[in-house]
Write a structure and sequence with these properties.
UDP N-Acetylglucosamine Acyltransferase, domain 1; 12 strands; about 30% strand
């Protein structure tokens, strides 16, 4: 099943696999019974060359995962939502690659002031 607003380019998708909406799958192979979460992107181009992503069978790719090729995801593996995967994931492993949230007290007010000054340098 291919969802809405999914682009598939130079890729093979095996039977019984699902690619939910808002995803880009390029230069990739996806095995059977695999679920690709919404917003997933195979980052296949490094500015000079295209690279391949290989995703095995019975894999669960969490929503908004970036798979930075070349990368291989083994059978029965999983990725955590919002992860940026840059290394191979072995069969049955769970890969989570995202930093911890950090809240900066008063940071929004300070950042808005800096950005406002940059946008309007003559304003006081």
């Amino acid at each position: 099943k291919i969802g809405n607003f999914v682009e598939i380019k130079n890729a093979k998708v095996a039977e019984h696999s699902k690619i939910n909406h808002l995803s880009y799958i390029g230069d990739a192979e996806i095995g059977q019974n695999t679920n690709i979460g919404a917003g997933t992107i195979t980052c296949n181009y490094d500015g000079f060359n295209k690279h391949k992503t290989v995703i095995g069978e019975d894999v669960f790719i969490g929503s908004n995962t970036m798979l930075v090729a070349p990368v291989n995801i083994g059978n029965n593996a999983m990725t955590g939502s919002g992860s940026v995967i840059t290394k191979d994931v072995a069969a049955q492993d769970l890969a989570i690659a995202r930093s911890d949230q950090s809240n900066k007290k008063g940071g929004a007010k300070k950042l808005k002031a800096v950005l406002s000054r940059k946008k309007n340098p003559k304003a006081k």
